[in-house]
Amino acid sequence: MCGVAGLINLDKIRENGSRIKRAIVLQNERGNGLGAGYGVYGIYPGYEDLYAIHIMASSEDAVNQAALFIRRWFAVQKQEPIPVWDKVIIDHPYFQRFFVKPAHSSLLCYGKQESEDEYVLKKMMQMNKEVHGAYAFSSGKDMGVFKGVGTPTDIYDFFMLDNYQGHSWLAHNRFPTNTPGWWGGAHPFNALDWSIIHNGEISSYGINRRYLESQGYYCHLQTDSEVIAYLFDLLIRRHGLSIREAASVLAPPYWATVERMADREEKESQQLLKIIYEQAMLNGPFAVLAAFSGGMFSLTDNTKLRPMTVAIQDNYTYFASEVSALYEMQEDLRQVVTPRAGEPVVALYRDNLEPREGEVA
Amino acid sequence: MTAIIESKGIDYRKLNEMVRVLLSQGERHIILKGVRGQRYIAAGLTEGDLLLEVEGVPGEDLAFCLGGPQVIVHGHGQNAIANTMDSGTVVVHGMGGDALAYGMRGGRLFIRDNVGYRVGIHMKEYREMKPTVVIGGTAGDFLGEYMAGGTLIVLNRQNEQASVCGQAEKTLATGIHGGEIYIFNYDVPAYLPGIGARLLSPSREDEERVRRLTEEYCAHFGFDPAPFIEREFVKIIPSDSRPFHKFYCFAYPVDS
Amino acid sequence: MKIRPEQPGLRSLYRPVFDRALCIGCGDCASQCTFNEIRLDSRKDKKIPQATGKTCGACQRCAVFCPRGAIYIEKRPLTLHPHAIWNEAAVMHVHLQSASGAVPLTGFGAGTTIPTYWERILFNACQVTNPAIDPQREPMETITYLGRKPASLKKADGLKADQLLRLSLPLVFAPMSYGSINLRLQKAFAITARKKGILWYSGEGGLHEELNDYSDCAVLQIASGRFGVDPDYLTKARAYQIKIGQGAKPGIGGHLPGEKVLDGVSRTRMIPIGSDAISPAPQHDIYSIEDLRLLINAVKEASGYKPVCVKIAAVHNVASIATGVVHAGADMVYLDGYRAGTGATPVIVRDNVGIPTELALAAVDQRLRDEGIRHKASLVVAGGFSNSADVMKAIALGADAVAIGTAFLVSCGCYGCQRCQSGKCAWGLTTNDPVISKRLEVEWAVERLSNLIEAWHHEMKEVMGLNGIYDIGSFRGNRLLLRGVGLSAKELEILGIKHAGE
What we know:
- The complex is a heterotrimer.
- By secondary structure, chain A is an alpha+beta fold.
- Chain A contains eleven helices and 18 strands.
- The radius of gyration of chain A is 19 Å and the shape is globular.
- Chain B has a domain at 95-238: Glutamate synthase, alpha subunit, C-terminal domain (Pectate Lyase C-like), CATH 2.160.20.60.
- Chain B contains three helices and eleven strands.
- Chain B has helices at residues 12-24, 204-221, 226-229, and strands at residues 3-6, 29-36, 51-57, 67-74, 87-92, 108-111, 132-135, 148-154, 178-184, 197-200, 233-238.
- Chain C starts with 13 loop residues before the first strand and ends with a strand.
- Chains in contact: A-B, A-C, B-C.
């Protein structure tokens, strides 16, 4: 089931989460109280160049183990507990965050200078594998994921999200299909600056996961949605695909449609994408909202089995599973758009220096 | 006498209960103001003389199993409007979502603007019960899938030249085995109709019937019917009553 | 007086039984039987058939062709004390060898009681959390591309989709050499492959000139006997297959008994009529893995860089061998498992050598992924597929495509009498005898094969649809779709699947 909502200001004007909270709470029927989460960008002014690692841990000991790991591989500028309001949820994991940069000497990997992003990703995968009881659930710059077991209201209040100012917000209300609710299994799922929320179920999960694992991504969250975050990181950051190309990998056009393409170059490119990235294709109903450092976009499966609606007003773009939730974010909406199956609706920040494929519907 | 409910912030269960209470008190004109996302409005109502007006955006499954009343939405609709609807009239002054009129068995649904995917799946008719859906704009893939009866009209009032009734191959009216679909002012590409679907030109009787329904649509939304009905339209019906009989054979002999 | 019973234990195991009430004495049964099992007694103007009890192999030809359905085949009992080792097959085998001092040959694939894994693996289906897709009404695609693929778009290096081998569905015709089978049958395979948008593999018998028109959907084989491999052969195919081994006889070369080397075979293979066509066990220019690279590159140079497939039998170290084959430059690896069929192989080899296809496939697919080279070669698997569910299970384990051999023979009349090597196939399938081979009508065979592929295609789409999958690419390698039943922990581990209930 699940409900999604997203909000982005293209000029990076920031606000707290009250509007997104209203939108996700209105869609309460879409969840079952077993998971909710938020992804927010622009929340750590003064620390924009540092990776903000959010950890959840089952014990203080696990927190310490995680801290040891992080201090070994990173230069830590600040470590502190993530502020939470205990009264809202009494039984909860420990939360810590670290503002870090890769330790310079470790970046040289077998004589090859690794990119910082690749280094951070690898270390987060390694930490999640090796340090038991602790899990890094967010590791991008100037952004953070806040999620857990509870309703959207519970999680919002628990993390006191009124105190954060972000220029883009994702919100998710979970109705888990395959696994019992647990704190790590809530959405958004994160890889570096990618956060994704997902409504649906991935029938291709078995092969998506095997493909990602052969590419060095460790999938351990017992939730199919996890693969989407890693797929975007792989396709866009590592392989250099544009958003549109990555979207057509995850939600590819049918072979029959490709056959009919008139533009020969586009046709050949599309054929290659389908052939090369067969294992990255998602089958099954899905509506995905993805946020990253350059903006936000929505994508649905190519038969549009899960809902997604979009509204654009002034310099805001709003996303939600239901039209009514869009109005919760902006009362006087003039234009509501229903995206097409398999086509991304992309909203990019105006200062995005490398607009890979800008299209605002 | 008109009863008004300020619906903002009211949980759908409470809201629908309030409507039922008003009905039991004899109210037959009810306006819900400030509706935003409440589900199942008008679900299962059978008071044929009821006029229910919804201001705002009603949530999923509006008019589910509706049995008689008239429901008017002043705003956009969401998904699953007129799901398994039995009789009555639903009018939406805006767009509709996905999976509208699923299993609809009677009554009328009018959507002013575009609708989404999987509209009119398995509509069915029996004797005098014939469901009708009129869409003012365009529709997505799987329009009329498994259709078994009734009438579905896509008016295409903006005169779009592409994606009027779906995009993906063989998804239009796929599996149709009863009923009829009319598409206005659009050259339906050959790859679009699904298994069992056949395109043909409408007959005189068809034109008559479609004209009346179009006029009814225009009356609801205050449009002039003339520019609508002077355009061409095409008809889609089943090509065969059993398009799948060659797919299967009996595993054990049944006849000598 | 010496008692020397004639060929003890070497009588036939089956016998045709004639319903005298239905028999009209037409004598067709005797003329249909190519093994001289049926004798006709003339009585009045009727020809009364009698079983001789000498050679019936249950090929069903007489029974199927009897105009009155008056014949059925019966197993002739050889009643022995129940014994775990000395059963009928064991006793017969010893008698055969005692009589001849020779190695018994057979055809077909291994029928032993080694467990078949396909039967103990079940599929998932969608319920509530994910909608099933209706394959008859909703879009469903099975298009498959075989060949070497780049790891990312950036590394595509100008690759075009039409350089790869495109299949409409992930099935191909397994290699059966001209000589082991009737030219007409091979022609039917070629025609059907073209018609269905898939490939046919030629096997090691070379390419008869009648099939030149079908070389563009053919994978021509280069086996150790190098039959028919001339410069022209090396340019006309869609792709080439280097045969290292086959599942029915791993480690043994090809064997076409002289009885089957008749005119056309002799010409195509360039060997004398009546001579045994033996292909050596190893390719004598490949004694180690680096030699394989030599041959692959030689073929590519001579063919204009066409894709090269390497066929190996599934043996114990198959995962490492397959890795080596991929590193040597193969664009496709063809894995032939334990139950694969053949026209001629020693019984002892067929039944005791090699490992099951299922396990080999799972191990190879996983190893190639672990090594990061799964994209460099497509996996085509063969050996013991009798229905479309087996095929889909193989795809879910990781196969790119499945090669079918025996099922296509069965489609055209084979009932598994396992006497292919005799050249007397009553159905005209595995014989090139000028008279008997005419029994196989090409058009009829094409219809049968097309129907079978069509039916399997629908079934495959049903299995995809009920798993909520519309594109075969999301089914391929998706082991979460499978569960084992009654498999040991180790078997589950090797197959990479969970047990039902998990």
